[in-house]
Amino acid sequence: TDSRVNLVSQAVSGVRVMKMNGWECEFNQRIAKIRGHEMSKVLKASRYKALNESVYFFSNVAVSIVIFTVHVLYGRTLTPRNVFTTLTLINILQHAVAKHFAGAVMAVSEVYVSIRRIQTFLELPELSPASPWLLNFSNEKHETGGETHEELISLADATSYWGSGAVFNSLHRSRVHFKRDLSISSPEHKERASSHLGSIALSKITLCFERGRLYCVIGQVGCGKSALLQALAGELPLRTGKIKWSASSIAYAAQDPWIMDGSVKDNITFGLPMKQEWYDKVIDACGLLSDLRQFTNGDSTIVGDRGIQCSGGQRARIGLARALYRDSEVLLLDDPLSAVDSKVCRLLYCSAIMNLAVRRGRCVILATHQHQFIGNECCILMENGSVKCFGSYSDCVDSSNGILTSTLQTSEEENDALELQNNNILLQSPVDKEQGSDILDKACDFTAENDHKEIRVTGIVERSTWVAYCNAMGGVWVFFTLFILFAITQTSALASIAQIGKWAEQKDQDSPSWLRLILVLGATVVILSLLRGWLSFYFLIKASQNLHDLMTRSVLLSKIEFFDTNPVGRILNRFSADVGICDDILPLTIYDFMVGAFIALGSIAMTIVVLPFMLLAMPPLIWYFIRLRRIFITTTRELKRLEGLGRSPIFAMLGEANSGVATIRTNNSINYFRDRFEKIQDAHTRAFFSFVASSRWFAFRVDFIAFLLVAFSSFFAVLFQDQGWFGVDPAVLGLSLTMLLQLAGTNFPWIVRQSAEVVNQMVSVERISAFGKLPPEADLTVKYDESAKSWPANASIKVSNLTVRYRASLPSALSDITFEIESGQRVGVVGR
Predict the structure, then answer these.
(1) Angle formed by the axes of helices 586-610 and 512-556, to 10°?
(2) Please, which pLDDT band fits residue 694 given cuts at 50, 70 and 90?
(3) Lowest-pLDDT range, 334-343, 729-738, 771-780?
């Protein structure tokens, strides 16, 4: 299951890459292959469940036949009294021993597996207690040569490796004293570490970062720039050496900007209180005003899962704005300038990084390839994970062996001129300050987009859902075959018990003919119940497999609009929780209900035949039962839907937090996300607890109805027999009361609850079926493909009057575009 859900998650997360390359069928085949392995395990488990359920059904008949046969063969005589007394006692034990005990054994094994998985997860190495965002900082000033230098972060002989952080986090936990510095220098730790080393990330780094300075980390791709920033953020543990944090707060903007599913404002404030003046400055400095003007709801626009509604440059600027808004003492910026054009790049450097950070006394460590703005700032030239040069940009050029060039370098005076130019650009922007305020105030006029809300179905489970499930089983003929098999099996069980009662009235009870008849009937019940159980679980699980395959194909072939408006967690909820219900819980619930329903129908039918006067008590009991069940089904069905809707945000947030864990932790937003998670977890728990409470409410009243049924039957049977108003065969009367006692004591409340559970769990089928009917994209293959196998012979593109939009609720992204690209041409797409 984990492998299947993980592969679905990869397909959904990289859906654009998948669709651009036409890999839908390949992913579908890979998921189907993993699903096949999963279903083999599910089918194997279902055979044991079928065996348990079959043993439960025939146990009373089989045990009774064995007891009575041994009793007769030892020369004893059966009487209707001891036969039906024995049957009653066996029926009392049947539900507890054959049903719940077997279920308890199975549940304990499942719980054991789950606990082991949870235990394995809980025993994973935890965060190092020396990480910067887990410490209580205090600023310190270090005196050097009579001049005060306020060091915020320092590294001494720091070495890190990729791929073995978990091992060293466990080493960190073994240390007793950490305070503000993290070091691994003992021979024991070095020896333990040496056997788990991966590829080197940083090698013997010794640096010092001071307040109010800008440090530009430069170098070729893969030289260790991001590794240095991750080490400073506490996300890449040291193997040897020491790192010391003296800053009170750190903010981090990742190279791949992480955007959570929420509004632009939520992504920037990130759990901090709203400070409107500072917020406006950050928005202005990051050049987001013109973008917010284009958004439907300004900064209250929902950006979607992973910021899918934003361009790469917009995501980069939102990530930078988030780091600036925190106003931390240290800013770690991992190449935020790479995804924007030259004008915006200049704006971000001058207005955001320099004005709002460096010139306000913040320490900024910037990994960048935009060397033209560096000027006289400190530079750190990285090469193969080590510091090759620490000094000015000209020093780094001299040490780079020709890799760097000073031709793009601008002076500090030119940077100041560029900053004035940027201010003029802002003033000339179509979005002035008053318009910007209006944009930021759009939250008062607009609500969140409904496109991102999960659709909630209300009312009864529609007939189309039942038909879809029936068709997934194999069609109507499968349903009727199983129905007939259930009826025959129940009839054989009743015939066996009735013949046992007749046997007790015979004088020649040790006759071979009677013994053969009873044993044949008992064997028939055993064989039919085993066959019924195996076929039922096979077809029910086959239905789950077919529904899953249909949903998988539908999701993979659906339009991009579907993925833009549905977070990954919401989709995975249906592939994990809902599919899990259809695989494991729903087949057992349907089978339980069907078995119990036929037992109940047989018991009530026999009672009415033997005691027709019970028809007088039936109408009010049936009316009360139907009324109760209607209330219960209506309530629990909606609660089950609410529970399913409440589960989707949990999956979505877990996946979201996992992908952005470095940003969350480094920006000290753990408590904010924990509070958000507890809020959505509480919403799910409220729906689930209400569902359980409703089940208890209904069970008490069903027990009361069953008690009244048995009480009326026993009282009227004795009364009518005593007064001679109605003659009753003692054997048949005993069978009827035995079945009623079994029905009232255990079966009836269980059956009714299972009937409600079937309806409630069909909500999962409803949710899966909804994803199985998604509007698809155009066919991947068409008839023209066969006649155009040599296409494209001439790789030219002609576009005429093209207007497109991402979905119906959004404005046009391209409007009346016309252009032509000839074969062999190289075309650059530019613009803000």
Answers:
(1) 140
(2) confident
(3) 729-738
Q: Tell me which DSSP letter residue 134 carries.
A: G
Q: Count H helices, E strands: the chain? A: 30, 14
Q: What b/e readout covers 162-185, taking b as 16+ CB neighbours within 10 angstroms?
A: eebbebbbebbeeeeebebebbbe
SS3 annotation, 5-57: HHHHHHHHHCHHHHHHCCCHHHHHHHHHHHHHHHHHHHHHHHHHHHHHHHHHH
User: Is pLDDT above 60 for 496?
Assistant: yes
Say whether pLDDT at 158 is over 80: yes
Mean of the pLDDT values across residues 133-158?
56
Backbone angles phi, psi at 678, to 5 degrees: -65, -35
Answer whether 547's CB lies under 8 Å from 97's CB.
no
Q: Is the pLDDT of residue 661 over 90?
A: no
Which residue spans within 451-501 are E strands per DSSP?
none
Report helix, strand or coil for 617.
coil
Query: Between β-strands 151-161 and 240-245, what pairing exists: parallel, antiparallel or unpaired?
Result: antiparallel
Residue 759, judged by CB atoms within 10 A of its CB (0-12, 13-18, 19+), counts as: buried
Q: Which residues are paired to 821 by β-bridges?
A: 797
453 DSSP assignment: S
pLDDT bucket at 234, cuts 50 / 70 / 90: confident
Whether the CA torsion 632, 638, 642, 643 is positive or negative: it is positive
**Per-residue confidence (pLDDT) for residue 184, from 0 to 100:** 42
**Structure tokens, 453:** 């809300």
> Positive or negative, the Cα torsion across 471, 475, 480, 485?
negative
Using alpha carbons, list the distances in angstroms from residue 424 to 428, 607, 644, 831. Answer: 6, 93, 53, 19
Q: Does residue 473 have a pLDDT over 50?
A: yes
Distance CA 595, CA 57 (A): 8
Helix or strand (DSSP H, E) at 334: strand 330-334
Residue 261 to residue 257: CA distance in whole angstroms: 13
Q: What b-and-e string marks burial along 561-571, b requiring 16 or more CB atoms within 10 Å of the CB?
A: bbbbbbbbbbb
The separation between the first and the last C-alpha atoms of the chain, rounded to the nearest angstrom, is 44
**Exposed/middle/buried for residue 714 (C-beta within 10 Å: 0-12, 13-18, 19+):** middle
CA gap 526, 519 in Å, rounded: 11
Closest residue by Cα to residue 346 from 361, 376, 318, 368: 368
**Would you call the peptide bond into 132 cis, given omega within 30 degrees of 0 as the criterion?**
no
Contact status, residue 155 vs residue 243, Cβ threshold 8 Å: yes
Q: Model confidence over 278-319: pLDDT tens digits?
A: 999 999 998 888 888 877 788 888 887 677 778 888 888 898
Q: Using an 8 Å Cβ cutoff, are 135 and 234 in contact? A: no
- Sorted by sequence, the CB contacts under 8 Å of residue 369 that are 6+ apart come out as 218, 335, 337, 338
Q: H or E stretch including 580?
A: helix 579-580
Alpha-carbon distance of 364 to 216, in angstroms, equals 8
Tally of residues, the chain:
832
Distance separating alpha carbons of residues 203 and 47, to the nearest angstrom: 57
Bridge partners for 792 per DSSP = none
CA 214 to chain centre: 41
- 294 C-beta neighbours (distance < 10 Å), count: 12
d(CA 545, CA 136): 53
Taking each helix axis from N to C end, the angle separating 730-742 and 670-723, rounded to the nearest 10 degrees, works out to 160
Structure tokens given for 188: 């024991």
Among 791, 760, 826, which Cα is nearest to 581's? 760
Percent of the chain topping pLDDT 70: 82
Would you give the DSSP letter of residue 302? B
Beta bridge partners of 210: 151
- Specify whether the CB–CB gap between 152 and 111 falls below 8 A: no
Q: Do 216 and 409 meet the contact criterion of CB atoms below 8 Å apart?
A: no
